[in-house]
Every structure is written in structure tokens, then in C-alpha cells.
Design a protein that fits this description.
Elements lengths: L12 E3 L3 H9 L5 E4 L7 H4 L2 H8 L3 E4 L2 E4 H10 L8 E3 L2 H4 L1 H5 L23 E6 L4 E5 L6 E8 L1 E7 L9 E2 L6 E2 L4 H8 L11 E6 L2 E5 L4 E6 L3 E8 L5 H8 L4 H4 L9 H12 L3 H25 L12
Parallel strand pairs: 1-2
Antiparallel strand pairs: 2-13, 3-4, 5-6, 6-15, 7-14, 8-13, 8-15, 9-12, 9-14, 10-11
Length: 321
Amino acid sequence: MKPEWLERDNIVRKKGISIEEFVLSFEEPNKPVLLEGCMDNWAALPKWDRDYLLQECGDVKFAVGQVAMRLEEYFRYADQVREERPLYLFDPKFAEKVPILGSEYEVPIYFREDLFSVLGNERPDYRWIIIGPAGSGSSFHIDPNSTSAWNAVIKGSKKWILFPPDVIPPGVHPSPDGAEVACPVSIIEWFMNFYDATKSWKRRPIECICKAGEVIFVPNGWWHLVINLEESIAITQNYVSRRNLLNVLEFLKRPNASELVSGTLDRVNLHDKFKNAIEAAFPETINQLVQKAEEKKAQQKKLSYWDSVTDSHAGNFKFCF
């Protein structure tokens, strides 16, 4: 990575904020934030390194791309790899395979309302252990099923670039239905060919380096690219709270849900299962959220109209009765 690709750091950073402040300032307005200090009590933070993981699960097979590799084999591969886009260990069943790993971290207080939990074991994949050498990572994508996410770095550091839902990153070409995304073959290729262009954009991306002990909140619908700056170990989880429940339900009922929905074999019926489970566990919640959304939309429409008659040309405007 060139030094100039790492200079910009314009994300909001917070430490010790209340849940209420997180919801009002970041989750409801759908804005990213980097959170410090909310992993301090994790047993994983001082323990998880190569030696510890090899001791606990060196012979366990984890998902690496389309194949399964023993962790010991993966670390050998990571030491030798010279390709531009190294394979990434990204496993959604790590806690079932190695229960002690699931017990050595806890969900930060800001993300504990996870409504997909009403589905129990039928919920889509939602948590992953992520391990990779320098240069590994994920090219631009939007997280699955319109969920929001948090990503906690336990070892190493990651460069993040995020664009809001209505700004498609340069060099990225999603299909009209959103089922496929075409982008440069490697992350480095994107930086070499497109990163400089973002410097002149009016709506620049949000960027940061997330280090060990830090957590980034990725709001639903945001495009993001992540690259490891050194060998890194992280945990990430996708979740649904009341703030994005309606977005998720709308996503799950799209006509091409069988192509868009991920993390579950029953893609077509997930919407009905989830909606019915929410209504059983939290009666009237969906109706209340719909009513609140409609009131907010009506208020925004009023404000938009008032802006149109009190804008910079108001000096020439006259009321006519």
C-alpha cells in the first residue's frame, strides 16, 4: 500500500458513548462510526494470536474462499503467498466448530438488539471469524440482506473505505437488480486506478484505519472495501435492530429474493418466516415502525416544500392570495 493511500482518516471516532447517543447520532441517521474501548473486556483481545489459535484449533478446518483448510495449513499458505489477492479465512461456523472462540468475545452493548435472533437456528449466517495476511480483504460490496454490521479488530489493522448507499464507488458496476457486482480484480488494482479520483469528488468516501481494540459500525446499504495492512484477526457480525428492520423486510420480499438473499438455504420463505416471528415475539412493532416512518416522510416533505419557498431566491418571492 502506498503511504498516500493511508493518509486520509475522516471517520467520526467515539469512546464511551451511551447507547442512546449511538442510536441518535449514528444508527438512526445510518452513519458509520469507529468505536474505541468497547472490546477492553474481551478475553480474545490479549489472547488471540497465531500460537493461541494453533493450540486451540490448528487441526480444525475453516472456510477459505470456496474450500476448507485446516488452520495450520492456512497459516503456512499465508506465509508463502505472493499473489495480489491472497485468500481470506472467513468462516460463519467458527463458534460451533470451536466453542471456546465464541465464548471469548461479547457483542458490544450498541449491537445487542438483534432481531434475526427470533429465528433461532434458522437465522441466516451472521457472524464470522476473519483471518488474513497483509493485502487480503474484501473488494467493494454491500452487506447481505440489508443488515448493518460491526467489525472488531483483535490483531493487526485494516484500511476501510466506505461510500453511502446512493454513491456507487468508481470502478464498481452493480447489476440493475443488485444481484451481481463487477469491480476490479484486486483491491490494489482499485487503489491504483480509481482511488485518486475520489479526492475530487464532492461527496468523498469515509476512510479510516481500524486497529486492534477498535470496532467499526457499518450501516446498512453502505458500500465498503477493506484491506488488511498486516496479518489480522477480526470478528464481524451482521444484525437487525428496530432501526433497520423495515429495510430488511423490504429487501427479503423483493421479487428476485432467491438471488439476493444470502446465508440461508430457504431464501424464498425467509421474509414470511422472519415477519411472522417478529409479530409473534414483538406484537405491533412492525406497525409502529411503519407509522413512524410515514410520519417522518410526511415531515420531510413539509420541510422540503418550505425550503423551496425560502431558498436563496426568497428575496424575489412574493406571496399571492
